[in-house]
Amino acid sequence: MDSRAVRTFRVFVVVTAVVAVVLGVVAVVLPRPSLVVVALVFGVYLVVSGVLRVVAAVRGHGTPPLWRWTSGVVGTLVALAGLVALLDPAIPLVVYAVLAGVAFLVEGVAALVGGAVGHPGSSRVPSVVSGVLSLLGGVAVLLAPGLALTVFTVLAGIALIVVGAGALLLLPPRAAVRR
Fold it and tell me: With contact defined as beta carbons under 8 Å apart, do 140 and 148 qualify?
Protein backbone atom coordinates (compact mmCIF):
# COMPACT_ATOMS: atom_id res chain seq x y z
CA MET A 1 0.00 0.00 0.00
CA ASP A 2 1.45 3.39 -0.88
CA SER A 3 2.16 5.95 1.82
CA ARG A 4 -0.65 8.27 0.67
CA ALA A 5 -3.22 5.48 1.09
CA VAL A 6 -1.82 4.67 4.53
CA ARG A 7 -1.99 8.34 5.57
CA THR A 8 -5.57 8.60 4.28
CA PHE A 9 -6.57 5.48 6.19
CA ARG A 10 -4.84 6.80 9.30
CA VAL A 11 -6.75 10.10 9.08
CA PHE A 12 -10.01 8.20 8.60
CA VAL A 13 -9.35 6.08 11.72
CA VAL A 14 -8.36 9.11 13.81
CA VAL A 15 -11.41 11.16 12.78
CA THR A 16 -13.91 8.32 13.32
CA ALA A 17 -12.29 7.39 16.65
CA VAL A 18 -12.38 10.97 17.92
CA VAL A 19 -16.02 11.32 16.85
CA ALA A 20 -16.83 8.06 18.66
CA VAL A 21 -15.15 9.25 21.85
CA VAL A 22 -16.87 12.68 21.73
CA LEU A 23 -20.30 11.14 21.07
CA GLY A 24 -19.66 8.60 23.81
CA VAL A 25 -18.79 11.31 26.33
CA VAL A 26 -21.92 13.27 25.35
CA ALA A 27 -24.08 10.15 25.75
CA VAL A 28 -22.59 9.40 29.18
CA VAL A 29 -22.80 12.98 30.47
CA LEU A 30 -26.16 13.88 28.87
CA PRO A 31 -28.06 10.61 28.29
CA ARG A 32 -31.60 12.01 28.15
CA PRO A 33 -30.86 14.89 25.75
CA SER A 34 -28.87 12.41 23.62
CA LEU A 35 -31.93 10.17 23.41
CA VAL A 36 -34.10 13.11 22.39
CA VAL A 37 -31.66 14.05 19.62
CA VAL A 38 -31.67 10.46 18.35
CA ALA A 39 -35.48 10.44 18.39
CA LEU A 40 -35.59 13.76 16.50
CA VAL A 41 -33.11 12.55 13.87
CA PHE A 42 -35.18 9.38 13.52
CA GLY A 43 -38.32 11.52 13.13
CA VAL A 44 -36.70 13.57 10.35
CA TYR A 45 -35.62 10.36 8.65
CA LEU A 46 -39.16 8.96 8.80
CA VAL A 47 -40.69 12.14 7.39
CA VAL A 48 -38.21 12.30 4.51
CA SER A 49 -38.49 8.58 3.82
CA GLY A 50 -42.30 8.70 3.88
CA VAL A 51 -42.50 11.73 1.60
CA LEU A 52 -40.07 10.17 -0.88
CA ARG A 53 -42.15 6.98 -0.89
CA VAL A 54 -45.31 9.00 -1.63
CA VAL A 55 -43.51 10.88 -4.42
CA ALA A 56 -42.33 7.56 -5.87
CA ALA A 57 -45.92 6.26 -5.76
CA VAL A 58 -47.30 9.36 -7.48
CA ARG A 59 -44.56 9.45 -10.14
CA GLY A 60 -44.41 5.67 -10.58
CA HIS A 61 -46.03 5.64 -14.02
CA GLY A 62 -45.81 2.21 -15.56
CA THR A 63 -45.63 0.43 -12.23
CA PRO A 64 -48.50 -1.76 -11.03
CA PRO A 65 -51.32 0.22 -9.39
CA LEU A 66 -51.25 -2.07 -6.34
CA TRP A 67 -47.60 -1.14 -5.73
CA ARG A 68 -48.34 2.55 -6.16
CA TRP A 69 -51.27 2.49 -3.74
CA THR A 70 -49.36 0.40 -1.20
CA SER A 71 -46.29 2.61 -1.46
CA GLY A 72 -48.40 5.75 -1.13
CA VAL A 73 -50.29 4.50 1.93
CA VAL A 74 -47.14 3.18 3.62
CA GLY A 75 -45.30 6.41 2.80
CA THR A 76 -48.09 8.47 4.32
CA LEU A 77 -48.09 6.36 7.50
CA VAL A 78 -44.30 6.53 7.77
CA ALA A 79 -44.33 10.33 7.33
CA LEU A 80 -47.07 10.66 9.96
CA ALA A 81 -45.04 8.51 12.37
CA GLY A 82 -42.10 10.82 11.75
CA LEU A 83 -44.23 13.87 12.51
CA VAL A 84 -45.37 12.26 15.77
CA ALA A 85 -41.72 11.62 16.64
CA LEU A 86 -40.86 15.25 15.89
CA LEU A 87 -43.78 16.61 17.92
CA ASP A 88 -43.10 14.36 20.93
CA PRO A 89 -39.75 12.51 20.81
CA ALA A 90 -40.62 10.55 23.95
CA ILE A 91 -43.25 8.51 22.08
CA PRO A 92 -40.89 6.50 19.85
CA LEU A 93 -38.47 6.09 22.75
CA VAL A 94 -41.15 4.66 25.04
CA VAL A 95 -42.41 2.42 22.24
CA TYR A 96 -38.87 1.13 21.74
CA ALA A 97 -38.47 0.46 25.48
CA VAL A 98 -41.83 -1.33 25.68
CA LEU A 99 -40.95 -3.49 22.66
CA ALA A 100 -37.60 -4.33 24.24
CA GLY A 101 -39.32 -5.22 27.53
CA VAL A 102 -41.81 -7.47 25.75
CA ALA A 103 -38.97 -9.10 23.80
CA PHE A 104 -37.16 -9.83 27.09
CA LEU A 105 -40.35 -11.42 28.46
CA VAL A 106 -40.85 -13.57 25.35
CA GLU A 107 -37.20 -14.64 25.40
CA GLY A 108 -37.50 -15.46 29.09
CA VAL A 109 -40.55 -17.66 28.56
CA ALA A 110 -38.86 -19.41 25.64
CA ALA A 111 -35.73 -20.06 27.71
CA LEU A 112 -37.79 -21.38 30.64
CA VAL A 113 -39.70 -23.72 28.33
CA GLY A 114 -36.40 -24.87 26.85
CA GLY A 115 -35.05 -25.47 30.34
CA ALA A 116 -38.17 -27.38 31.38
CA VAL A 117 -38.40 -29.66 28.35
CA GLY A 118 -34.72 -29.65 27.47
CA HIS A 119 -33.31 -29.11 24.02
CA PRO A 120 -30.27 -30.54 22.26
CA GLY A 121 -26.91 -29.02 23.02
CA SER A 122 -27.97 -27.11 26.11
CA SER A 123 -28.09 -27.77 29.81
CA ARG A 124 -31.32 -27.10 31.68
CA VAL A 125 -29.79 -24.98 34.46
CA PRO A 126 -28.30 -22.25 32.22
CA SER A 127 -31.56 -22.12 30.24
CA VAL A 128 -33.61 -21.63 33.41
CA VAL A 129 -31.19 -19.00 34.76
CA SER A 130 -31.26 -17.19 31.40
CA GLY A 131 -35.06 -17.36 31.36
CA VAL A 132 -35.42 -15.96 34.87
CA LEU A 133 -32.93 -13.14 34.16
CA SER A 134 -34.72 -12.29 30.90
CA LEU A 135 -38.08 -12.17 32.68
CA LEU A 136 -36.66 -9.94 35.42
CA GLY A 137 -35.06 -7.68 32.80
CA GLY A 138 -38.33 -7.47 30.86
CA VAL A 139 -40.30 -6.55 33.97
CA ALA A 140 -37.69 -3.94 34.94
CA VAL A 141 -37.77 -2.36 31.48
CA LEU A 142 -41.58 -2.31 31.42
CA LEU A 143 -41.79 -0.79 34.93
CA ALA A 144 -39.18 1.91 34.24
CA PRO A 145 -38.76 2.41 30.48
CA GLY A 146 -37.16 5.85 30.88
CA LEU A 147 -34.54 4.55 33.28
CA ALA A 148 -33.89 1.56 31.00
CA LEU A 149 -33.28 3.87 28.04
CA THR A 150 -30.99 6.08 30.11
CA VAL A 151 -28.95 3.09 31.24
CA PHE A 152 -28.79 1.82 27.65
CA THR A 153 -27.60 5.23 26.44
CA VAL A 154 -24.89 5.44 29.11
CA LEU A 155 -23.68 1.91 28.31
CA ALA A 156 -23.68 2.69 24.58
CA GLY A 157 -21.71 5.87 25.33
CA ILE A 158 -19.16 3.89 27.32
CA ALA A 159 -18.88 1.43 24.43
CA LEU A 160 -18.27 4.31 22.00
CA ILE A 161 -15.54 5.72 24.25
CA VAL A 162 -13.86 2.31 24.57
CA VAL A 163 -14.05 1.57 20.83
CA GLY A 164 -12.81 5.05 19.87
CA ALA A 165 -9.97 4.98 22.38
CA GLY A 166 -9.06 1.44 21.32
CA ALA A 167 -8.87 2.51 17.68
CA LEU A 168 -6.57 5.39 18.61
CA LEU A 169 -4.37 3.18 20.78
CA LEU A 170 -4.07 0.49 18.10
CA LEU A 171 -3.17 2.97 15.37
CA PRO A 172 0.35 2.39 14.05
CA PRO A 173 2.81 5.13 14.91
CA ARG A 174 3.47 7.83 12.32
CA ALA A 175 6.98 6.50 11.75
CA ALA A 176 5.42 3.31 10.33
CA VAL A 177 3.58 5.42 7.75
CA ARG A 178 6.81 6.91 6.35
CA ARG A 179 8.45 3.55 5.64
Answer: yes
The reported pTM is 0.69
Question: For residue range 60-88, what is the model confidence (pLDDT) as tens digits?
Answer: 888 888 888 999 999 999 999 999 989 99
Are 67 and 60 spatial neighbours (Cβ–Cβ below 8 Å)? Answer: yes
Contact 44/86 with Cβ under 8 angstroms?
yes
Query: Residue 125: is it exposed, middle or buried by C-beta count within 10 angstroms (0-12/13-18/19+)?
Result: exposed
CA–CA gap between residue 122 and residue 110 (Å, rounded): 13
pLDDT tens digits, 47-62: 999 999 999 889 988 8
Residues 6+ positions from 135 with CB-CB distance below 8 Å: 104, 105, 108, 109, 112
HSE (side-chain half, CA atoms, 13 Å) at 19: 6
